[in-house]
Write the C-alpha cells for this entry.
Amino acid sequence: MFSDPRWSEALSRLPDYLGNHVRVSMTALALGMAISLPLALLAYRRPVLRGFLLGITSIVQTVPGLALLALFYPLLLALSALTASWFGFGFSAFGFLPSVLALALYSMLPVARNTITGLQEIDPALTEAAEGVGMTPRQSLTMVELPLALPVIMAGIRTAAVWVIGTATLSTPIGQTSLGNYIFAGLQTQNWVFVLFGCAAAAILALAVDQFLALIENGLRLRARTKIIWGAGGLVALLLATLTPSLTVSRATYVIGAKTFTEQYVLSALMSQRLEAVGLTSTPREGLGSNVIFEALAKNDIDVYVDYSGTLWANQLKRTGIKPRDELLTELNAALSRWKIMTLGALGFDNAYALVMPRKRAEEFGIRTAADLAARAGSMTIAGDYEFFSRPEWAALRTAYNLNFRQQRQMQPDFMYAAVASGEVDVIAGYTSDGLIAKYDLVVLDDPKRAIPPYDAIVLISPKRADDKALRDALLPLIGKIDIAAMREANLRAGNGETPSGVAKWLWDKVSRR
Amino acid sequence: MNDTAEAIVFDKVGKTFDNGRVKAVVDVSLRVTTGEFVAIVGGSGSGKTTLLRLANRLLDADHGYVRIGGQNVQQSDPIALRRSIGYVFQSAGLFPHMTVAENIGITPRLLGYPETDIAARVDELLTLVRLAPDNYRDRYPHELSGGERQRVGVARALAARPRIVLMDEPFGALDPLTRDALGDDYVRLHRDLTLTTIMITHDMTEAMLLAGRIAVMREGRLLGEGTPQELARSDNSYIKELLDTPRKQAARLQAVLADRSA
C-alpha cells in the first residue's frame, strides 16, 4: 500500500501544507484568544454585555465553517477597495488574512463561554473570602478566580484549538494553503490516498496540540513547572518544526492557480512542468473557488491560471446574451484588459455544458442534436449539476429548442455520467471535456443554434506578469495544442486515481509530438 | 468618653437590601471595648451576619455609623481596613488551590511583608493553633479535616497581627468534640493576644461558654445585650426562650445521667 507513488507525493507536500496549516491556525487561535479572553473578563459580571458576547459568538458558531470563510473573502475585498480609495492602499483579501479572521472568530465561542462559565461557577464563599482577607478586585481575579477557573478556561482553549485546526482545512478554497489542499484535491481527482492523508495529518496535529495544552493546564494547576515547560516546549517545537521547512523553502517565483476540479489540477501541473522545463520555479494554489481565483489573479495574488470563456462572460462580465466564439473571445480580451489581465490564448479545447446521452440510445432514437430531443423530451428525465438549472445556459437551451422534460434532477457531477449510462436518467447536462464521456460510451449532442456559449479554455496572466516574456514563452507551446479528445483522456486518467502531475506528463508527451 | 478602650462601635446602624424591601439591620447600637469577646446570637435572617460585615466594610451601612478604634469606617480605605481586621469565615473559606502556608500567609503577602518573615509567621501561627508546621505547611485544604481547616482559618485571620477578629459562625459545621476543643483554644488566643473578638453564632450555649458578653438579634433588631447573668434577668420573651433551651437541656441531661448511674 505504501509503495503507491501517491504516498510519496503526499509526503513531499507535507512540509508546505502542514507549515501553512500550523501558521494560519495558530495565528487565528492566538488572535481569537487575545480578543475573547479580555472580552470575557469584561463581561462575566455584566449580564447585558455577557448575553451580547455569548449571543454573537453563538451565532457565529452556527454559520458553517466553509460559509464563514467564504464570507470573509468578499468582505475583505470590499474593505480593501474602501481603504484603497480612502487612504490610497489596499491589502490582499486572499488566503491568509480572511482565513485568520474567520477562524479567529470561530474560536471565540468556546474560549469566551468557558471563561465566563468558569468564573461564574466559583463558590461565592471563596470570592467573599478573597474580599475578606483584603484583596482588591484585581487581586481577587488573578490570585483566586482565574486560578480556580483555569481548568474550565483551558478546556475552552483546547476545544477552540481542535476546532480551528479542523476548520482550517476549509481555507483552501479562499486561497490559504492548508492540509485541506490534500482533501480538496483528493476529492476531485478521486485520490483517496490524499484525502486520507489530509484527514490523518489534521487529526494528528489537533491531537498533538490538544495534548500539549493539556500538559500546560496540568502544570499550571499542580504548579509543576516541568509539566508547563514540557507542554510549552512541545508547542514551540511543533511550531518550529512545521514552520521552518515552509519558511526555508525557496520562494517560488510564479504562483499557479487551479479551481476545484480535476481538469484544473492537471492543467496547473502541466503549466508548472512547462515552467520547470525552462528553469522557472512555481508553486501551486489549488482548490480555489471560481470567483476567488479571478479576483486573486486581478490582484496579483496568483500569476496564471486557466479559465473558460463562457464562465468569464457570465460571471465577470455579467453578460447574458451569447455571441459566436470569435466575437466573444475578442470582446472578452477587451474587457479583461480593463483589469489589466492578459489573455495568452486558448488551449484548444472547450469545457462547456452540453447535453449528453448514451450513444446506443441516441442512435436508436435517431437523436444527433438538441433539436432532435424536443419531440421526446416530454417522456424523458434530465439530470444536471447543482447550479445548471438556474444558469442562463439552461434557459437558453430550453427556449432555443423548446425542451420540456418530464423531470429534472440535480446530482453530484461524478454520479451523473453513471446515472445516464445505466438508464436511471435519459439525458444529462455534462461537461464536454469530461473523460467519463468516453468511458461510458456517451455522445455529446450538437447545439446547432449555438444556445450555449463557447467555453474555450484560456490561459490568463496577472497584471504584474503581463509583460513577463519568460513566462509567456514557457507557456506558449501549450496554446492551441490540447484538443478535446486529449483533454478527455487526461481527465479520465486523473479521475481514475493517477496523480495530476503524472497525467500532466502524459498529456505533454501526447500533445508535444504534434 | 473613654475612646481609647472603644474598639468597635455600631451607632444606630441600618442596612436594607433589594431597594429597601428587605430590612436586614434596623437601628442597631452596640459598643465593644478593647479586649472584649462579644457573641451575637440570633436565628437565620436575624441580621447578625450583615451586622458583622458592616464592621470591615464587606457591606456599607445605609445609615448610622460604624467606628473602629474611634474612626468612622466610611473614612478609611476598605481594602486597608479588611487587611487590618481578622475575619474567620463559616466553614473556613480556605482557597483550595493554595497550600496551608499560602492560605495563612495571604494577608501578609498582600501587605508586602518579606517572604522570609511570612514563612516564619506561618510556622508560628500553625504552632499557635496546635498544628505541627512540618506536617501541615505544604498540605492543601482538601487534605485536612473540618477542624484542621477551621484552625487554619483562625491562623489566617491572625496572620497580619490584627487587633480585632470577626468570626462568622466559625465552629458551626464541626462535630461537638472538635468544636469544644477549638472554642477553648480560641478563647486562650483571644486572651493571650489581647484581641477584641465579635463572634456570630446561632447557638446560645456556645455563646455563653465562650463570650464575656452576648447580644441577641432578631429580625434585624438588637433585642438585648449583656453578660449571661444580665441576660438571664431580661423580661424579653425571645431572650428567655433562648436561655431556657440550654438550661432545660442541661437539666434533662443531668437527670438522664443520674438515672443511669443509680
Remarks:
- Chain B touches chain A through 20 residues (CB under 8 Å).
- DSSP finds eleven helices and ten strands in chain B.
- The two ends of chain B are 57 Å apart (CA to CA).
